[in-house]
């Protein structure tokens, strides 16, 4: 059987034709050179069978990439690493907040603001250039789920209620400029259309095009601690519980790694992986 006729099962349950191009693109985005990419593609293609899941394909490609260079595997597992911030969603809110801090925003997480009608719990408040942005984070622990139009409809109504009160309060010294919806998955087309029409800023895994969450993380080198292939799960959870959500936050400060009792040899490998990952 020709490998280009193999159909695979996505996390959503949909059956799609296996695409060598998509696999090659995802591997190239890690920074892997052509020889490594083509070697992995060749091995993965040889192991394909009808009905194989995208998860199994990913796991195999990840394992092969990890054998070559662990920091490339860390980049490849970014989407999975975002899911690992769960299950409550609060670490995802802190992750978004921390990314914005590295973009010169001042941020607060989990703040209650009074609206004109009722009070609202806001996930992230960001301030920059005398403008305030309200950000709602929609974290999905289950893969394949999309944010439908109900999400921006609901969030925009809350934003408008807060805005009406904010602009009427003379004690507020910044302009409430915009509302955001951020998700670790994707938006439906209706959700995007409503966001564009209402002026609500929409940020998902791959939207806006070339400036989605993945693009920003790769461009800025702001990877969550959960991408590490060398840290154990309990170690990642310990770091998250101490508000260490970015790999970059460990550079130049190994205090928490020492606190975890990690040996000098292993610590050196972890920090080397992080430095290569973040381009530092």
* CATH topology value of the largest domain: Trna Endonuclease, Chain: A, domain 1
The neighbouring-strand order within the major sheet is 3-4-5-7-9
Number of helices: 12
The tally of domains stands at 3
- Sheet/helix structural class: alpha/beta
Query: Helix proportion of residues, in percent?
Result: 40-55%
Reported for the largest beta sheet, the result is: 5 strands, mixed
* pLDDT averaged residue by residue: 91
The CATH C-level class name of the largest domain: Alpha Beta
Radius of gyration: 21 Å
Task: For the record, give the distance between the C-alpha atoms at the N and C termini, rounded to a whole number.
Answer: 46 Å
N to C succession of SSEs: EEHHHHHHEEEEHEEHEHHHH
Number of strands: 9
CATH architecture of the largest domain: 3-Layer(aba) Sandwich
Task: Estimate the strand proportion.
Answer: 15-25%
Query: What spatial form do the alpha-carbon principal axes imply?
Result: globular
Pick out the low-confidence regions: none
Write up this protein.
This protein is α/β, with parallel strands linked by helices and 280 residues long. It has three domains: 66 residues, no CATH class; 131 residues, Trna Endonuclease, Chain: A, domain 1 (3-Layer(aba) Sandwich), CATH 3.40.1350.10; 52 residues. Helices cover 46% and strands 18% of the residues. The strands form three sheets. Strands 3-4-5-7-9 form a five-stranded mixed β-sheet, with helices on both faces. The protein has a two-stranded antiparallel ribbon with strand order 1-2. A two-stranded parallel sheet has the order 6-8. The longest helix has 19 residues. The chain is globular, with a radius of gyration of 21 Å. It starts with 6 loop residues before the first strand and ends with a helix. The model has no long low-confidence stretch (mean pLDDT 91).
